[in-house]
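To the team - manganese (II) ion complex, inputs and output below.
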Amino acid sequence: MEINIAVIPGDGIGPEITEATEQILKRVCEIYGHVLNITHVKACSSSIEETGEPLPKESLKKCLQADAVLLGNTGLEKYKNEPLTKRPEYALLKLRKKLGVTTNLRPVRLYPALMELSPLNKNALSGGLDYLFVRDIAGGVLCSEQVKGKGVHGPEAYEYEYYNQKIVEETAGFAFELAKARKGKVVSLDKANVLGSSRLWRKTVTEIGKEYPEVELTHEYIDSAALKLIRMPWYYDVILTSNLFGDIISDEGTGLTGTAGLFGSAELAASGKGLYTPNQLHYPDESVIGQQKVSPVGMIMALALMLRCTFHLEQEAAAIEKAVEKVLEQKFITEDMYYKGAKKVKTQEFGFNVACIMKM
Ligand code: IPM
Ligand code: MN
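Output:
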């Protein structure tokens, strides 16, 4: 098969984790006989420095020509006072719109080898922790226009939470379909006790749920679910959310594992095209940039998701996931996730170990 992808290393630790991941992709293509065409695309901070734009036309064009886009990392402190359109994050938001991705999948689970890194105690974890966050990325506050002005109390600014039936139906459809292959359970989160957009959300999800009698649907309020996720981490399986709620609670979910850098994120369009990133898209510690200290696993998992969701290469995706698990079981780990008794390796070396474990 031909694998045509665009790769944006992005900001901060992005280039390191991208390099470590690309060697695995090359290895997979060697083993399974795929033709690989990678186009490296300048976007985020590197292109802001050169052109002033986070995603210049030429870069966008290359992404649109590819079947999938892999993005390493986005956001740097130094741009925090710039307007959104001049910040690296804007490249991601613009790509989402132009690629037409609507639904964000974020699988999160506990790796037995790394259980001790979780901030939860053994008791809480004894029932397991294995989630699939299904988050809308086509609507909601994060897709709304920013309005600024001057009111009676001085400068004012606001966004609004917009949803329509079609947007909710699309994301809900993903959640129910995927739940069938998991535990057959969807919990949809909203704030329907207050927000009109959440009421529409709940009503629409309920309607779609009727098409899936084999899947159990429950609704919870986002605030109490944020609490329950910590108290009863084993309770949830597929978690369906709006854009902003999902952004927040998926970070909480990864935080509960203590290993936020281990998970991938898939942003999917109905066409099959996708944008794939680590779940932790913005790495919070800039002091480690360029030092090969950070785990590339989130990006490697994004690669596996890409092969699975856009190219339908399940065997290849599963092989990557298994290889990562083996390397973790052998106690190889980067400095950011170091624990007593582990063998510390550089970012690139971790990727190399994963590539090596994959057999011809
Ligand atoms: C995410 C990120 C993005 C979002 C930002 C970087 C625009 O936080 O996907 O988790 O909020 O959608
Ligand atoms: Mn986020």
